Every structure is written in C-alpha cells, then in structure tokens.
C-alpha cells in the first residue's frame, strides 16, 4: 500500500531533536550486528536519530557468556558506529532476571557468590565502556506482575539468591565504575498510571527511598510497549514524569512501540495509520513538554524487523513500514517537534553533554539535491535514485531508474516541470526549468 509520502523528506528527526537538546532514537536490531539487514536500515538510522541501544548485544548473556570471559565485540561495533555518527549510547541492561547465562543460574541461592558475580559483571562491563555509554539500564524489570506490586521474587536468580539489596548494590557498583553515566531503573507497564497500587506508584516509592538513602539513580525508563487502543497512556507518562521531577529524577521513554493486533495485518486503513501517528505525536508532545524527559527510544525502526511480530500478538508498531517507507507516525513526530520550537523546549542535560554530542556530529549525508544544466539533471546525495519528471498538470513525462550522479532528461520540451527524486527513504521534489 503506497500511502506514505512524507511531507518532511528533507528534514530529519535528529536535527530537530538536537536543536531541542533531546535524544530520539531506535534500537540497532540484532540483524544489524549480524550484517543481515537491508542497507536502508543503517542509512535511515544514522540519518534520522541521535541515540542508540543494542537490541540484545549488551545484555548479560551476550557480554559474559561464560564466567569472567567477556565478549565486547558486538557492543564495541555499536559504540564505534555511534561515535562515528554522533549518536548517544544507552546501555541495556545490567541486572535483569532474563537473558542470564546458564553458568549464573548454576549459582542459584548462593548469596555471596551471586553478589561477587554481579559486581564483577557490572565493574567489567561499565568499566569497559566508561565514558562511551552515556546511560545504563542498571536494573531491568525487577517488579512482579501481581496486582499488589512488589519485587519479582520468583524467576529471578538475583532476587532469590541475594534479596532486594541486589538493586541498591547494582546502582552503587555502576556509579563507582562510571561516575558520569546516567543510571536508570527500567520497566514495562509503568505507563498505566501512578495511582495507588500501580506499578509506577511502586517505582515512585522505591525511587523516593533510593534518593533518601543516597543510591545513585538518575533516571527511570518507561519501556512503553503499547497497543493502538491504549489512548490514555501518553497522559499517564506525563503524570509519571511530573512525579519523578519532584524527586529530581528523569523519565525516559526507552522501548516505545504502538502495535496493532496481529490479525489486522494486511487490513489496516489509512485512518488506522493516522490513529497510530496521533498516539506517537501525543507521546512526543509529552516528551517535549516535560523538562525532565531526555530520551525517546523506539524499540525498532522498521516493521520488517520487530519483536512484535516475532514474539507478541501484535504487528506494525514502528515508524517505518516493511519497505522502509516512513508511515504517518513519522510525520506526526515531525509535526510535534515543529510545534515545539527549540526556544520553548528545555533540555535536562548540562551543556557539556550537548556540546559533546554536537562536536561528534557528522554532517547528514542523506539529503538529496538536484540541479539542472541544459537537459542534464545532476543529483547529489543519491546512491541509486529513481527520477520522475512531471509536467505542471502532474502528468508523468520522464522516468529513469538507478541514477547515481546525473541523467539526461531526453525528450522534454522547454518549460517548467516538477522533478521527483527518490533514493531509499530519501526524497526530493523540486521545480525545474528547461531552457
Ligand atoms: O527485542 C528483544 C528480543 O530480540 C529478545 O528475544 C528478547 C528476549 O528477552 O528481548 C527483546 O527486548 C526486550 C528488552 O530487552 C526488554 N524489554 C522488553 C523487550 C521486548 O521483549
């Protein structure tokens, strides 16, 4: 279905985010690390975003697959990519009950041993990327799914063996290993409101306690894996952000996706995608309006590679479709950014953080430009562009594929035309005069 024609082809989320002192990004999917992803992926990723997270490659089982034998190769690959392209790096995740390798589980119930395993892991991993990973999910998903929320007491090797103090210790160790890194508690279903008995309410109680006890937490992550029907969630996130601001803690959106029910695949209408865009826009509005929100991360870039299809009864939750075309949600995010001018958006980061990002920033190479000399149309910024020319009534009069640098617009008379250049996700529409 070809309903996506972005009105913002020549502007990027990244430039607008940067001007506002904020970070907007998506994960690098595991397929990227394995060189098994379409070339459009990286091109869009580094052009449109300024923060990155590894889908799986900085998790415990990936970084310490056997005891005290660390594997940083994939994480290093991402850090180098981020540095080369001026992206901030989020580290995900240090202490989590899931994706823990078998050798750790062999120490179940051995408190002293598990404490030293977790400390060694945090010292080593955070130490390895000191100064390069700006922010860590120190503890991930440690709260249970019961109605009366409490720590997850079963199914967590850390809680069962160590007790709740594993959380406090993890923050202290991470801070010692990189005193400048932001340190987050990250969880799902905290976008359901902050009422009594809510998961977010439980987080707030813990953050209060941590702050009172000098535990070095600086941020909370709301994963925000939601569905199209969850219309109240943006305002819940706003309330959570305000409550955390009182405690001098940031709230980041860390894993956003807005899925449709799986059965709707192939049946979605333009109105459905508009609705999805509207929800994305509301999240972006909240993000830009709350001064203690710094990062807005979407859990995937293209619907072609998403955990929703692989592991959930959901589908099509991201900004780009399976052909890497920007969906209405992309434009909605741009509209929100434009509706919140840089002069009105506060950044929660000190100048030092923003300047560092700015100097690492390399020029966006993705913009297309075109120039006509006689009948030769020269194009800059394209790898293999499709060029279409229309007369002023919109009738197609010329078409060429795989244009790299220039094409002769043969067969055209003199006069005014509109040229459209498309190269992957990049587009350009421009008037030209043939003399
Ligand atoms: O997207 C990740 C998927 O590839 C993994 O198989 C899965 C394993 O647990 O983890 C997914 O990412 C999760 C993230 O690390 C934590 N929050 C929920 C994410 C989606 O499951």
How do the strands and helices of this protein lay out in sequence?
Blueprint: H1 13-19, E1 23-28, H2 30-33, H3 39-48, E2 51-54, H4 60-63, H5 73-85, E3 88-96, H6 102-105, H7 111-128, E4 135-140, H8 157-162, H9 165-177, E5 182-187, H10 199-212, E6 219-222, E7 225-227, H11 233-246, E8 250-261, H12 270-289, E9 293-298, H13 307-311, E10 314-315, H14 328-339, H15 351-360, E11 369-373, E12 376-380, E13 385-391, E14 396-403, E15 406-408, E16 415-423, E17 426-434
Parallel strand pairs: 1-2, 1-9, 2-3, 3-4, 4-5, 5-6, 6-8, 7-8, 8-9
Antiparallel strand pairs: 8-10, 11-12, 12-15, 13-14, 13-16, 16-17
The protein binds ligand 9MR.
How would you sum up this structure, described in words?
The chain is α/β, with parallel strands linked by helices. The chain folds into two domains: 13-356, TIM Barrel; 362-434, Immunoglobulin-like. The protein is built from 15 helices and 17 strands. It has helices at 13-19, 30-33, 39-48, 60-63, 73-85, 102-105, 111-128, 157-162, 165-177, 199-212, 233-246, 270-289, 307-311, 328-339, 351-360; strands at 23-28, 51-54, 88-96, 135-140, 182-187, 219-222, 225-227, 250-261, 293-298, 314-315, 369-373, 376-380, 385-391, 396-403, 406-408, 415-423, 426-434. An eight-stranded parallel barrel has the order 1-2-3-4-5-6-8-9, surrounded by six helices. A four-stranded antiparallel beta sheet has the order 14-13-16-17, with no helix packed on it. Strands 11-12-15 form a three-stranded antiparallel beta sheet, with no helix packed on it. Strand 5, helix 10 (199-212) and strand 6 (219-222) form a beta-alpha-beta unit. Helix 11 (233-246) packs parallel to helix 12. The longest helix has 20 residues, at 270-289. It is elongated, with a radius of gyration of 24 Å. The two termini are 37 Å apart. Mean pLDDT is 92; it is low at 359-365. The structure holds ligand 9MR. Ligand 9MR binds at residues 30, 55-56, 98-99, 223, 255, 307.
């Amino acid at each position: 279905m070809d309903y996506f024609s972005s009105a913002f082809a020549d502007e990027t989320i990244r430039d607008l985010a940067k001007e506002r002192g904020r970070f907007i990004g998506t994960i690098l999917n595991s397929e990227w690390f394995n060189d098994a992803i379409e070339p459009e992926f990286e091109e869009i990723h580094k052009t449109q975003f300024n923060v990155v997270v590894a889908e799986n490659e900085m998790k415990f089982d990936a970084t310490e697959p056997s005891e005290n034998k660390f594997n940083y190769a994939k994480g290093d690959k991402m850090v180098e990519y981020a540095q080369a392209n001026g992206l901030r790096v989020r580290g995900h995740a240090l202490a989590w009950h899931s994706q823990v390798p078998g050798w750790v589980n062999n120490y179940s119930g051995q408190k002293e041993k598990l404490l030293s395993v977790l400390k060694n892991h945090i010292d080593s991993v955070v130490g390895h990327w000191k100064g390069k990973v700006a922010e860590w999910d120190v503890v991930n998903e440690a709260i249970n799914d019961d109605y009366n929320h409490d720590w997850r007491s079963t199914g967590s090797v850390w809680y069962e063996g160590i007790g709740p103090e594993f959380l406090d210790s993890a923050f202290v160790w991470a801070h010692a290993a990189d005193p400048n890194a932001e340190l987050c508690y990250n969880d799902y279903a905290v976008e359901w409101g902050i009422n009594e008995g809510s998961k977010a309410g439980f987080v707030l109680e813990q953050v209060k306690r941590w702050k009172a006890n000098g535990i070095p937490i600086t941020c909370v992550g709301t994963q925000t894996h939601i569905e199209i029907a969850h219309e109240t969630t943006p305002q819940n996130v706003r309330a959570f952000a305000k409550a955390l601001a009182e405690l001098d803690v940031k709230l980041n959106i860390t894993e956003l996706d807005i899925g449709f029910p799986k059965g709707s695949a192939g049946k979605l209408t333009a109105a459905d995608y508009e609705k999805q865009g509207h929800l994305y826009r509301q999240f972006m509005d909240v993000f830009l309006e709350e001064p203690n929100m710094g990062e807005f991360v979407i859990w995937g870039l293209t619907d072609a590679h998403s955990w929703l299809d692989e592991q959930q009864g959901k589908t099509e939750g991201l900004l780009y479709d399976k052909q890497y075309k920007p969906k209405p949600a992309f434009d909605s995010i741009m509209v929100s950014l434009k509706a919140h001018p840089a002069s009105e958006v506060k950044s929660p980061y000190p100048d030092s953080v923003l300047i560092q990002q700015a100097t690492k920033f390399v020029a966006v190479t993705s913009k297309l430009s075109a120039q006509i000399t006689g009948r030769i149309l020269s194009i800059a910024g394209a790898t293999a562009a499709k060029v279409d020319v229309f007369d002023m009534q919109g009738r197609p009069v010329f078409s060429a594929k795989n244009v790299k640098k220039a094409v002769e617009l043969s067969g055209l008379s003199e006069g005014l035309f509109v040229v459209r250049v498309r190269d992957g996700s990049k587009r350009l529409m421009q008037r030209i005069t043939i003399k």
